[in-house]
Amino acid sequence: MIDRNGAGRHPGSVRGSLPLVSAFAVADLLGLVAFGELLAFERMAGDARLAPDLRRRAALNEMAAAEIANYRRLADRLTALGVPPEDAMAPYVEPVQAYHDSTEPRDWAEVVTKAYVGDAITDDFVREIADTLDEPDRGLVLDVLHDSRYADFAAAEIRLAVADDPRVAGRLSMWARRLVGEALSQAGRVAAERATLTALIARDGRVDVVPGLFGRLTTAHTARMAAAGLNN
Amino acid sequence: MIDRNGAGRHPGSVRGSLPLVSAFAVADLLGLVAFGELLAFERMAGDARLAPDLRRRAALNEMAAAEIANYRRLADRLTALGVPPEDAMAPYVEPVQAYHDSTEPRDWAEVVTKAYVGDAITDDFVREIADTLDEPDRGLVLDVLHDSRYADFAAAEIRLAVADDPRVAGRLSMWARRLVGEALSQAGRVAAERATLTALIARDGRVDVVPGLFGRLTTAHTARMAAAGLNN
Q1: What's the sign of the alpha-carbon dihedral B228, B159, A78, A146?
Q2: Which of A29, B103, B147, B183 pairs with B174 at a CA distance of 20 to 30 A?
Q3: Which positions in chain A touch B41 (Cβ < 8 Å)?
Q4: Is residue B7 part of a domain?
Q5: Which residues, 6+ apart, have CB-to-CB distance to A46 below 8 Å?
Q6: Which positions ≥6 away from B173 have C-beta within 8 Å?
Q7: Which one of B45, B54, B89 has the shortest CB-CB distance to A90?
Q8: Residue B3 domain flag
């Protein structure tokens, strides 16, 4: 039975401090972020072969490995919530895979741009949804934000590529727009299919919350592109 | 100038406690193990897509990520020895890559068998060479031995695959022999080309040390195959 009266709202209880309906939504959300981390890990590790030298190849692999530590924390929390991580992740396999399949980088500049854009958009999304969560889930998702030294590495690589050949800026700007477009397209699909997830994000009852969220993510992305020397 | 008189044999000095000629050999060795870890990481992460479910996919990815932590420790030690990790790894890119290119797994059973065999042979090799090192390198390489829970996971998966279809045992036994054959073939190439490395392993002056080492690695491999329910 779904408990709408807040019974079980005892901090420290196994299900955390949320009523059961929200616990399902939280599991949905943690499952999305967890699978996102898992696939980001695999794809970045796969992209490392495009690195121009071993130093950069190792750096991207270390950036990838950081995703797995985050995955483990989210999976452990799901287990504590009584939800097998693979069940929570299952609904997201297809859209997340579709995003990566449609954004296969062709060279190192595209690899680092994808890592930069992907990590940042994920972080923005996580920060947005953290506000809708109670502890300990709020603290957990804020803890899986990416280490800024990886973003610094990626941004520096983008600037280097552009300095090396100014025409690259146009190509990477277009590539970044495509990355965001594909990500939002898959996110829209997820939002349409996962009512519990959308309900969690729209906890304050505003039905227009998803377009608003997407708008904020896009605005932040534009500012970030400029910081890396790219146009939007 | 190469220092053959043992000057600089002060524990705690930047180059460790080895004379300079050995410091080069140690860098050679750490470079080999470091690049082995880096490529094992990439390939395992790439193989994860062959997992039959998300639980196993995540487990292989976590097994892969453990390699990167080891890589980092070896790279830090190389830096402390004054050798850029990418320089120490460069001579091994081709043979290690050739090993992986010639042993591309076709299904999950081959993936876990490769991870099982590869990690174990690496560990045996590392244990053998640890004896030839002084501290702190001896302790460091012994510390990068693989966590046995990953071997347990891989062995359990192999046994499951065999239990599911007994004919798989023959195929995996043959696959494991091929893995060892390809690994020793590339290792022989490395030994022939890297005199400093062979000299380190043969520190006691025995010229037949490489065949002896290979023999011991093969014997240990045979015992391990039996433990996982495979024939040699």
Answers
A1: positive
A2: B147
A3: 45, 61, 65
A4: no
A5: B42, B45, B46
A6: B225, B230, B231, B232
A7: B54
A8: no
CB contact under 8 A, B45 and A49: no
Residue of B nearest to A71 (CA): B58
**pLDDT tens, residue by residue, A125-174:** 888 878 778 888 888 888 888 777 888 899 999 999 999 998 999 999 99
Residues of B with CB under 8 A from a CB of A: 35, 38, 41-42, 45-46, 48-49, 53-55, 57-58, 61-62, 64-65, 68-69, 71-72, 75, 84-86, 89-90, 93
Using DSSP, state whether B100 is helix, strand or coil: helix
Rounded to 5°, angle at Cα B47 from B173 and B65: 110
If we measure between CA atoms, which residue out of A29, A24, A146, A137 comes closest to residue A92? A29
* Complex ipTM over 0.90: no
Closest Cα in chain B to A88: B54
Residue A184: give its domain's CATH number.
1.20.1260.10
Contact predicate A184/A217, CB 8 Å: yes
**Domain region containing B87:** 20-227
Would A34 be classed as within a structural domain? yes
Q: A-side interface with B, Cβ within 8 Å?
A: 35, 38, 41-42, 45-46, 48-49, 53-55, 57-58, 61-62, 64-65, 68-69, 71-72, 75, 84-86, 89-90, 93
The Cα diameter of chain A in Å comes to 61
Q: Do A64 and B45 touch (CB under 8 A)?
A: yes
3-state secondary structure of A18: coil
Torsions phi, psi for A40 (to 5 deg)? -60, -40
Interface test with A, best of B53, B68, B76, B97 (most A CBs within 10 A): B68
Q: For residue range B75-103, list pLDDT tens digits in order.
A: 999 999 999 999 999 999 999 999 999 99
**Domain presence at residue B232:** no
Nearest to A46 by CA among A101, A4, A89, A91: A101
Q: Quote the pTM value.
A: 0.79
Count of domains observed in chain B: 1
- Angle at which helices A168-193 and A93-101 pack, to 10 degrees? 160
